[in-house]
């Protein structure tokens, strides 16, 4: 494959290449997702290409998910039960919804604003009583999820 030399009908690969034809790159940089993880933590890097182990995810770095809910919809039920003690997960809240730190704020203008170092999603969702509630969802560099919800 141009990545080694042939000796006695056997390929001897240059550094960072392997395989019977030296066609497998050991360089993992093409597999690094935007979050810095190899294959977004959802696959393995084989020959410089991600092999996604989670079937929902696809793409060159396992970041695309056509069937996934957005961040807001995904966390809506847990925010609702933690903040207001109601909603679909009310009975299972302490088992299923303790994966984020929660901070209550008085009003929407007290929510974290764009420009902070962590990726931030602003959310507006309807609760079980058909009322709007507002929250932000962010993940810091330590992988901790933080939710700020308007009382």
Automatic annotation (TrEMBL):
Keywords: Disulfide bond, EGF-like domain, Glycoprotein, Membrane, Repeat, Signal, Transmembrane, Transmembrane helix. One of its GO terms (cellular component) is focal adhesion. InterPro entries: EGF_extracell, Integrin_bsu, Integrin_bsu_tail, Integrin_bsu_tail_dom_sf, Integrin_I-EGF_CS. The keyword Manganese does not apply. GO terms for molecular function: C-X3-C chemokine binding; collagen binding involved in cell-matrix adhesion; fibronectin binding; integrin binding; laminin binding; protein kinase binding. Pfam families: EGF_2 (PF07974), Integrin_B_tail (PF07965). One of its GO terms (biological process) is cell migration. Residues 72-151 form the Integrin beta subunit tail domain. It comes from the Eukaryota. This is ITB1 protein. It comes from Rostratula benghalensis. The lineage of its organism: Eukaryota, Metazoa, Chordata, Craniata, Vertebrata.
């Amino acid at each position: 494959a141009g990545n080694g030399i042939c000796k006695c009908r056997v390929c001897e690969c240059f550094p960072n290449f392997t395989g019977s034809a030296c066609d497998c790159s050991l360089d993992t940089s093409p597999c690094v997702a935007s979050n810095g993880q190899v294959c977004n933590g959802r696959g393995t890097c084989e020959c410089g290409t991600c092999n996604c182990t989670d079937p929902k995810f696809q793409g060159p770095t396992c970041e695309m998910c056509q069937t996934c809910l957005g961040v807001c919809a995904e966390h809506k039920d847990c925010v609702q039960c933690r903040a207001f003690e109601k909603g679909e997960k009310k009975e299972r809240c302490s088992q299923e919804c303790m994966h984020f730190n929660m901070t209550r704020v008085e009003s929407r203008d007290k929510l974290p604003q764009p420009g902070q170092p962590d990726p931030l999603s602003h959310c507006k969702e309807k609760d079980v009583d058909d009322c709007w509630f507002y929250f932000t969802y962010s993940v810091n560099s330590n992988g901790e999820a933080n939710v700020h919800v308007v009382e």
